[in-house]
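Predict structure. Chain length: 396.
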Amino acid sequence: MTNTSTQQAPATHQLPGIAWFTVMSMVSPVALNILMPALPNIAADLNVTTDEVQLSLTLYLFTLAFGQLICGPLADRFGRKPVLLTGIALHFAGCLLGAFANDLQTLLMARVLQAAGGCTGMVLARTIMLDCYSRSQAAGKIGYITLSIALAQAIAPTLGGQLNVLFGWQVLFHFSLLLSSISWLIVLLVIPETAVNLTTSIRLKTVLLRYKQLITNRTYMGYSTSATLIACGFYLFIGTAPYIVANHLQGTSADFGNWFLIVALGFMAGSFSAAKISAKLGIKTMITMGNGISVVAALSLLIGLLSAELSYFLLFTPMALYTFGRGLSQPNNQSAAIASSDIAPGAASGLLGFMQLLTGALVTQAAPVILAMGTEWLALLLIIFTSTAILLNRRH
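Prediction complete.
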C-alpha cells in the first residue's frame, strides 16, 4: 500500500488568474502546430520523403502521449510546480536544438525533446483546476484552458505558414523558444503548488496499479474513449490537410495557415461556449451536443467531396464546424473522465492525454496511406469516429 504525506493546499481564491494557466498550456500546442504548414518544405529542404518528414509530427505526438502518462504520477509524487519547471526547461532544450537542425535525425530529436517537456503544461494545467475546484467548476475552467489551446491552434499554423515563407522553417523553433522561456518564468514566479496528498513512491508497480484501476473503470474509459475518438478526427485532418493543399490545390504553407485559421476559430468558439454554459446545461448535455455537431460536419464534408470539385472552402469549412463541436464536448469529457475516479487526478489526466495522443500519432502516420486511397476517406473516417463517440456516451 502506498503511504501519503499531506501538504496544505492553497485556497481556491489564492490561485492566480486563469490567463497565467492558458499561457502555460499553449507551449506544446504552439510547438506542435507551428511547424505543420512547413512540412512539405522541410521534406524538400532536407531531401527526405513525405513519410520520413511525417515522423516529425508522429514522434511529437507519440512522445507527448507517453510523456503525459509519466507526467501525472511524477506530479502526484513531487508536486505540480517542480514537474512543470523541469518539463518546460526540457522543451526549451528541444527548441534550441531544432533551431539549428540541418538533417532529419536532429530535427526528430528536437521534436522528441519538445514533446517530452511540453506535455507537463497540458496535463498539469487541467490537474491544478481539479485540485482546487468542484467537478462542474473545473469543467468551466478547463474550458478556458481548452480555449487557449484552440487559440494556439489558430495562431500557430497561420503564423508558421507566413514565417516559413518569409524566413524559412528554422525560425519557427525560435518562436517556440521565446514562448517556453516566458512560460517557465510564469511557473517559477506566479503558479503556486496545489497538490494536497503527495504519494511517497513512484515505483513502477504502484504506477501500473493506478493505471489498471483507471482502465477497468467503465465510466472513466467511456468518457476517455469518446474524447479520444473526436480528437483522432482532428489529428487525421492536420496529418493530411498540408499535403492536400500542396499537392491537390497547389497551395503554399501560407495558404494552408490562412485557411486553417477558420478551423481553429471553430474550436475556439466551441471552447468559449463550453466555458460559459457547461455549468448551466450540464456535462452530459454538452457532450451530446458537441458530438452531434461534429458528426453533422463530417457528413457535410463527405457529401461535398463526393459531389463537388475540391476547394479550400469545401475542405476547411466543414472542419471548422467539426472543431466547434469538439470544443463543446472536449472539456466536459475531460472533466467527467478525471472526476469519475478516486485515483489521483494527475494519473487520470495523464492517461487521458496518453490515449488521445497515442492514437493521434498512429492516425497521422497513416495519413499518406489514407490520402492514397482518396480524399473522401478523410470524411468517412471522421464519420466513423464521431458516430462511435456518440454510441459510447449514450451508455453513461
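Summary: The longest helix spans residues 135-167.
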